Automatic annotation (TrEMBL):
An essential GTPase that binds both GDP and GTP, with rapid nucleotide exchange. Plays a role in 16S rRNA processing and 30S ribosomal subunit biogenesis and possibly also in cell cycle regulation and energy metabolism. Monomer. Residues 62-65 are annotated as: G3. This is GTPase Era. One of its GO terms (cellular component) is cytosol. Pfam families: KH_2, MMR_HSR1. Residues 7-179 form the Era-type G domain. It comes from the Bacteria. It is a peripheral membrane protein. GTP binds at residues 15-22, 62-66, 129-132.
């Protein structure tokens, strides 16, 4: 009997900020890889997650949300998304359901498909996320409308939050990928280095702890990442990082009265970093002011944009 053919290829998740791309990636991998917060534009860089099963390896590119760019940072984020779309074999366009009179944002859906997805010439699937927010009948009607209007290879309603129809998405994607050997060993979940995820964890805690514009005005740079010495495994790993802000007033908010806020940030981040690395760490956080860093292309480049 012939063994089943193995599929391996790249799939890009694309959609608006807060469409649920990162939640979907984490659900597929059954592992928290992408940071997730209730605030839009949490994802700023491409995150590569690798889904494995006995018939396929799906290399998923989670991208920054598509929005109207207001500064150089946004332009750089959109360029990351464009590049990811070019690299992919298949595109999953995520369109979330919403409560109210209109089950989906039709204007944005049209812009997403016509301006971003179709021009690539790649096969695409439309995933209607947050299906747990609407009745089943509404979801079916939206699917019919989407198929008729945009002619995707397939469409399905799913819920990244609850896990509804996630296996069905894998079944849809598998035959669209090239028949090929796996690229990565099956114990690897991402191609990003540990220090990248350490920075992302700190950034997530900033999004969760601080209000208003503070999270959007900050960037996290890992300055030093010293791994434990083999001869002394009990020694804590040293991680020094800088939280970049644009104004001195923002620095004062990050630090807080008598350093209380930055201490709370460090405690929350360290706990999750230790879970990620599975070893104890000594975390030092400094705050640096770089005026208008989001508008300066040379600084953006040095921060990996």
């Amino acid at each position: 009997m012939q063994p089943p053919l193995f599929s391996c290829g790249h799939v890009t998740f694309v959609g608006a900020p807060n469409a649920g791309k990162s939640t979907l990636l984490n659900r597929l991998l059954d592992h928290k890889l992408s940071i997730v917060t209730p605030k839009p534009q949490t994802t700023r860089k491409k995150i590569t997650g690798i889904y494995h099963d006995d018939r396929s390896q799906i290399i998923i590119l989670d991208t920054p949300g598509i929005m109207d760019p207001k500064q150089s940072l946004h332009e750089s984020m959109l360029e990351i998304t464009r590049r990811s779309l070019r690299e992919s074999d298949v595109i999953v366009a995520l369109i979330p359901f919403q409560k109210g009179d209109e089950p989906i944002d039709r204007k944005f859906a049209s812009e997403l498909i016509e301006q971003w997805v179709k021009p690539t010439g790649k096969p695409f699937v439309i995933a209607l996320n947050k299906a747990d927010l609407v009745p089943e009948e509404t979801a079916k009607e939206a699917q019919t409308e989407i198929i008729s209007k945009y002619k995707p290879v397939a469409t399905l309603a799913l819920s990244a939050l609850t896990g509804g129809n996630i296996p069905e998405l894998v079944e849809l994607l598998r035959p669209l990928l090239p028949f090929d050997e796996p690229i990565w060993p099956d114990d690897i979940l991402s191609t990003e280095p540990e220090r990248f995820f350490v920075g992302e964890i700190i950034r997530e805690k900033i999004f969760l702890q601080y209000g208003r514009e503070i999270p959007y005005s900050t960037e996290v740079v890992i300055d030093e990442f010293k791994e434990q010495h083999e001869n002394n495994p009990s020694r804590k790993e040293l991680i020094r990082c800088s939280v970049i802000v644009e104004r001195n007033s923002q620095k004062q908010i990050i630090v807080g009265q008598k350093g209380a806020a930055i201490k709370k940030l460090g405690q929350a981040a360290r706990k999750e970093i230790e879970e990620l690395l599975d070893r104890p760490v000594y975390l030092e956080i400094f705050v640096k002011v770089r005026p208008d860093w989001r508008k300066k292309k040379n600084l953006l480049k040095s921060y990996g944009y």
